[in-house]
Amino acid sequence: MRTPAEFAGKQGYPCDPRQGHIPGARHVHVQDLFAGPGQPLPRDDVRALVGDAQEIVTYCHSGSRSALATLALRASGYTARNYAGSWHEWSRHDELPLER
Question: Tens of pLDDT along 38-91?
Fold first, then answer.
């Protein structure tokens, strides 16, 4: 749910000590899940973007974009949860892995 540059660790917020993404994460921009404001894409379109995962945990920088993505995913029938701490929290824990 982050920008491609954030996901790749090439750009990020100065308040985050580390840049990259959570291992195993897939990049899908939140706007790609919506046909228009407040209108999630049809279920088949979302599934074409996301696949057939059993459960999805969304994250972004601070939890707001990922909250919108969670709503769109739930509307498409996914079991989805929002990691509210998102990258802002993850990046502060050196013991947690990251990928670039």
Answer: 999 999 999 999 998 989 999 999 999 999 999 999 999 999 999 999 999 999
The first and second tokens of residue 85, run together, are: 């701490």
- Going by C-alpha positions, the residue among 87, 86, 53, 83 that lies closest to residue 70 is 83
Q: What is the CATH number of domain 4-14+22-90?
A: 3.40.250.10
Residue 96 is classified by DSSP as S
In this structure, the strands spanning 39-40 and 55-58 are unpaired
Q: What is the spatial distance between Cα 64 and Cα 58, in angstroms, rounded to a whole number?
A: 10
Tokens of 26: 């897939």
